[in-house]
Amino acid sequence: MTLKEALRDALDEDELKKLIKSYDVVGDIIILKIHPELESKCEIIAEALRRIYPRVRTIVAVPLYTHTDELYRTRDLEVIWGDENLETTHKECGYIFKVDLKHVFFSPRLSYERMRVAKKVLPGETIINTFSGVGCFSIVIAKMQPQTRIYSIDVNPYAFEYMKENVTLNKVEGTVIPVLGDAREELEKLEGVADRVLMPLPEQAYSFLPLAVRALKLNKEGARGVIHYYDVSTGRKGDDLFNVPLERARANLSSAFGNSLRIEVEETRVVRSVAPRKYHVVLDLRVLRMR
Ligand SMILES: C[S@@+](CC[C@H](N)C(=O)[O-])C[C@H]1O[C@@H](n2cnc3c(N)ncnc32)[C@H](O)[C@@H]1O
Question: pTM for the full model?
Fold first, then answer.
């Protein structure tokens, strides 16, 4: 049963039109966006969700125009039904992610993206995950390709603690190396070590790009590495959403490195829509040292 079907007798036509039909299930918590004009109907909406998911423990509402913490990327959440405790354990394709949604970023909508990136990794690679959150990308990679070493950096102390716990829960100790710190400082310490760098912070990855390239093993002519570069793009359906992020990235890198690098695009993908005509996109960039 869909949420709209469950509410057909409880809301009128106008209210049903304002209902935001998609929601996330994270462990035993449901998170949904509520239109401001439906705030008085929260209880009815929660009751309908409980009929669809009888085992849910907590239902959380996110205001439609919610504030997102600029650094930690967490959102304002309001418990509309159930337990105030927002710690939960989420299972995704055999991986276990323990999170506290009050304190850390987590999105089940990135599950395909985690697998997509992990499938590209080759045995023996050294990887840096610059904005790792509770370690999801790193853990999926480590499970799929155990012959790797993944430095997994996050500045949020809560994310770091959950990442350490998730590394243990998923038995990838020694492969994933949790690091608490600012990616800017940590990337400097890791200069010249990586075959691949992940930058899953679309709003800010741009400003870290030269440091990410410096972290690649580009010590001699012909050497190459890969950057999974995330950015925000705007446009209509059918527009080329990758050209502007690519040109921005190329301009940033040519002002830092001149003509010494060649940037090739391995793959592009729209990761998700985040607002009308606004998308998170990823460009897998192959970086080659020319001279
Ligand atoms: C959008 S979340 C991505 C989390 C993770 N990749 C995932 O898939 O769940 C971005 C993460 O980057 C972290 N972050 C933001 N700025 C940072 C910085 N300067 N250095 C390190 N981590 C940072 C935030 O704390 C947050 O956990």
Answer: 0.96
